[in-house]
């Protein structure tokens, strides 16, 4: 199946189920992850493009809120949900297993180590979405969904308290986001992540200036 037809089929499946997708995990997120995953894999020497395309569109097939008790199982549930779709699309057994592994391993909360280039590229591509201008927007979209305060008005950068990103959105930058570049699986991913992390730092510096304090991270 040509890549264009594969993408059309996957998008049709996505739209048929789009009721599960929030603003941070919509079709545009899937498209961006696909493009980034392909770029990263090409920079690293190759990868199976069919697997990358399918994994990008199906990696959030089961999308659970960050505070859901089954959140750590979401990627495994997505992989299982992807299998019959991949079979219908004519993927062979090896391609299905490769796609399922990439989907399972992409999740930060699942803590599964990606083994294949496709899995590493997908994980890096998905984590890039948490950085840069898009990542900045997504932080506050998700904070609004969870009812999280923007920051602690008395100590916005947690200089006199423990970080708590369940209560304060800005704390999430220090707890997770600014650490993402060092967690990238590929050289290409690390390069892109470092560049996008500077966008987040720039925002935090500007926020600190407006709040008349210092940005310690």
Automatic annotation (TrEMBL):
PROSITE patterns: HD. This is Uncharacterized protein. PANTHER family: HD_PDEASE DOMAIN-CONTAINING PROTEIN (PTHR33594:SF1), SUPERFAMILY HYDROLASE, PUTATIVE (AFU_ORTHOLOGUE AFUA_1G03035)-RELATED (PTHR33594). InterPro entries: HD/PDEase_dom, HD_domain. Pfam families: HD. It comes from the Bacteria. SMART domains: HDc.
């Amino acid at each position: 199946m040509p890549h264009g037809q594969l993408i059309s089929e996957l998008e049709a499946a996505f739209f048929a189920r789009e009721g599960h997708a929030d603003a941070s995990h919509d079709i545009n997120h899937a498209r961006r992850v696909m493009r980034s995953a392909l770029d990263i894999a090409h920079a690293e020497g190759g990868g199976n493009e069919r697997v990358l395309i399918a994994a990008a569109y199906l990696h959030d097939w089961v999308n659970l809120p960050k505070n859901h008790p089954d959140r750590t199982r979401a990627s495994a549930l997505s992989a299982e949900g992807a299998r019959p779709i991949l079979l219908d699309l004519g993927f062979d057994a090896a391609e299905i297993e490769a796609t399922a592994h990439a989907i399972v391993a992409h999740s930060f909360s699942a803590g599964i180590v990606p083994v294949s280039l496709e899995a590493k590229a997908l994980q890096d591509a998905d984590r890039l979405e948490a950085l840069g201008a898009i990542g900045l927007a997504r932080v506050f979209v998700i904070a609004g969904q969870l009812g999280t305060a923007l920051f602690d008005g008395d100590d916005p950068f947690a200089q006199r308290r423990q970080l708590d990103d369940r209560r304060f959105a800005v704390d999430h930058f220090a707890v997770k986001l600014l650490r993402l570049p060092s967690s990238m699986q590929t050289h290409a991913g690390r390069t892109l992540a470092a560049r996008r992390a500077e966008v987040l730092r720039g925002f935090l510096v500007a926020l600190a200036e407006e709040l008349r304090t210092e940005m310690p991270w």
